[in-house]
Design a protein that fits this description.
Layout: E1 15-19, H1 24-36, E2 41-46, H2 49-61, H3 63-66, H4 68-71, E3 74-78, H5 84-90, E4 96-99, H6 106-111, H7 113-133, E5 138-142, H8 153-168, E6 178-182, E7 186-187, H9 194-203, E8 208-211, E9 217-221, H10 223-236, E10 242-245, E11 249-251, H11 252-259, E12 264-267, E13 279-281, E14 289-291, E15 295-298, E16 313-314, E17 321-322, H12 332-342, H13 345-352
Parallel strand pairs: 1-2, 1-4, 2-3, 4-5, 5-6, 6-10, 7-9, 8-12
Antiparallel strand pairs: 9-11, 10-15, 13-17, 14-15, 14-16
Helix pairs in contact: 1-10, 5-7, 7-8, 11-12
Amino acid sequence: MGRFAPTSLDLDGKVILVTGGTGSFGRRFIETVLSRANPRKLIVYSRDELKQSEMQIDLAEKAETFGPEKLSAMRFFLGDVRDRERCALAFRGVDIVIHAAALKQVPAAEYNPSECIHTNIMGAENVVRACLANQVKQVVALSTDKACNPINLYGATKLASDKTFVAANNLSGDIGTRFSVVRYGNVVGSRGSVIPFFQRLIQRGAAELPITDPRMTRFLITLEEGVDFVLSSLAEMHGGEIFVPKIPSMKITDIAATLAPGLSTKVVGIRPGEKLHEMMISADDARNTVDLGDRYAIEPAFVEYTREPLTGGRIADDFSYASDTNHDWLDGPGLLRMLEEGRPRERRRRADD
């Protein structure tokens, strides 16, 4: 288990639902929970029947890894977070909801704003209502560094989603449902990120790699670290926090040089809605932020429910957490280690045999 793995989290006997459960995060989350716990039910809620079918086949092939008895806990519900009635039905009897469903591609969101708004904002509202109606105990919503000081529509919709989940704690009353958010940077090797894009070009024999801007920096985290961060935040949450991991940054030029040493690069310009550097905590959030050691937590500004503050050190009022001013930088060997750690477990084992 990695550096963010929870030290005290009991998922045995729990009913857990993951929206967007067939995505990269959802698949790794499901496998991690199956390998570490014995949930009563583990529900995948998503809208793509093909991906659900493929996921069922994939899990069946790994039955020996998890144990056939654990796979009996799996449930696959077709549904969209944009469908309020379907959410309300699917969330019955659920103890924990992990909200990972979202439209995430920045250019697609810029070109199709209404679709992004319907899924990321109105979908978040539907998830909140379904959780309250069914008295779900804990809810963790996945966010992104692009939600901090957003300049693109995707980031703006995720900021609205974050606000929706944080404020939902004020609506839970005697139901007691608690909502929190996790916010982290680019997932190494995930679909749509720059690393697999570069790798595809390299495999096709490209003579050069396109660089949007040589000054660009990004936060990087492995998929496994992201799953562990969500699980550990689930264990630590009091309700209303936005948890932010302490993770390294890397320059886009260094990523290219690591993946293809000696290959030339070509500056092609920043895409619409893209930032030079990403930020996860702004100076305006600093006054409400605490340092928890391996992570920061932005505590809610408005609290109208019973909540104990997190125990952590206060940070300076002018503090900000951005990829270009980060104190933790990743070098080439470090990136290669992250890529190795980010590979699916069965592929890692096969390579070691």
